[in-house]
Amino acid sequence: MRLSQDPGWSALLAAFAQAWGASPDGGSAAIRAHLDDVTSRLAAAQGRDPACLPRPPEPLPVTAQLPAALHAGRTGPAAPVSRALAAVASRLTWEWGYTTLPEDLARSYGYCEILGPRGPVQDDGLILGFVLFAPGTFYPPHAHQGIFESYLSVAGHWAQNDGGVEQPGSLVFNPPGTRHFITTGHNGPCLLAYAWVGESAKLGNPGMVLD
Questions:
Q1: In sequence order, which residues have a C-beta less than 8 Å from that of residue 51 and are 6 or more positions away?
Q2: What 8-state DSSP symbol labels residue 145?
Q3: What are the domain boundaries of the chain?
Q4: d(CA 183, CA 16)
Q5: Which CATH fold topology does 3-204 show?
Q6: 10 Å Cβ neighbour count for 164?
Q7: What pLDDT, in 10s, does the model give residues 124-162?
Q8: How far is it, in rounded angstroms, from Cα 88 to Cα 9?
């Protein structure tokens, strides 16, 4: 099946395109360049009408928090993303991405890739997906070498490196090698959409390691 034949994935990628395309850059040339790179790569991917590979749905302990996160996000600034995700929620493959991780993090964290080398929508120059955190999660320090990363807040409140509280609609940009950790608020789950840009070899094998 191709992307154009799958209304669910098509609508979700269209919501990503709208969200990153409309996100303000705060006057930062680096953020503007990243936003433009994400939207241009996504438009190119959509134009190629990539294959959609069937991946078996896979829950994790944290996905029990997903309905509450989607409910919170459906009326916020990132509502189109939350609503499009809700339409395909039963098809998501949630993962940890690490061979080992602390037991408490295994209960409170997970991510799912939507577009990228691991599909379900295939692309080798851009990864789009979601990260879900339970309330009160500490996501340990880590860095992504060779990958430009941005997070869009969909639901919940969180902080990166204790540098300020992010709310739904805000975007955080991490250039390659930026060491960062995340904490989430205690009043509800936190759902973030993310974009990774990098060389295809790096995106296919990001080597995720927690400090």
A1: 1, 2, 3, 121, 122
A2: T
A3: 3-204
A4: 24
A5: Jelly Rolls (2.60.120)
A6: 10
A7: 999 999 999 999 999 999 999 999 999 999 999 999 999
A8: 7
